[in-house]
Amino acid sequence: MRAGVSGGRPHWPLRGCRWLRHGHAQQRGLAVAYLVARLAGEYRGQVVTGYEVLERAGLIAPAVGLDGASRNDAGAGSGAGGATGWPEDRLQLCRLLVALLDETAGDFERLPFFVRPLARAGFKGKAGRSLQAWQQAAKALQRSIEAGEAIDAAQVSQELDRLIGYVRGVPAETTRFARDAAVLREVQERMNGYESDLLALRAALMDR
Question: Residue 35's closest CA among 47, 23, 25, 24?
């Protein structure tokens, strides 16, 4: 198991915590302990930071901009002065994002054991963060929208762009491992649907 646990760059919930900026021995120790005890199989073959492991453990807030930077930054808004009260269509699209990521996690679990680390690493490289971190981010975004909270729509849009890029590349990647025309057609159709949902969510969040 390769697991690089480092201080890394803290994310927005931790901006004011100077002692976390360069990592903290106790935090790194917690990350290593949790990784060894609970997540060794899940992160096998991947390089992860201490922040990712602690987020997965629920010990620190998700390291994402998707769950509303306005919680810590009073001036951040959603493109309309930070007004709250999201229409139902935004919430529904956010639920589709959560479902999309859950389906992707299920797909990875059905892969041969030795292929899973490659798939997870490929996702992280193209989507900007691990699948587990994306799932946490999507659920946090859903909670923010359900609560009518303002979000940093510009930041969310940038992050969704990375996920859209991953989705667009899946059909081509699949051709490296599959030759069945029906399977490739199904993958293409699914990814087309995912891309359509993600583009709609991005547009809906920006049109506020």
Answer: 47
* Residues contacting residue 159 through CB under 8 Å, at least 6 positions apart: 64, 65, 66, 128, 137
Global pTM reads: 0.62
- Give the sign of the dihedral formed by CA 37, CA 43, CA 45, CA 51: negative
Task: For residue 195, give the amino acid letter.
Answer: E
Residues comprising the chain, all counted: 208
> 3-state DSSP call for residue 129?
coil
User: What type of residue is 70?
Assistant: S
pLDDT digits (tens, 9 = 90+) for 28-71: 455 545 545 555 555 555 555 555 555 555 555 444 455 444 43
- d(CA 88, CA 31) in angstroms, rounded, equals 38
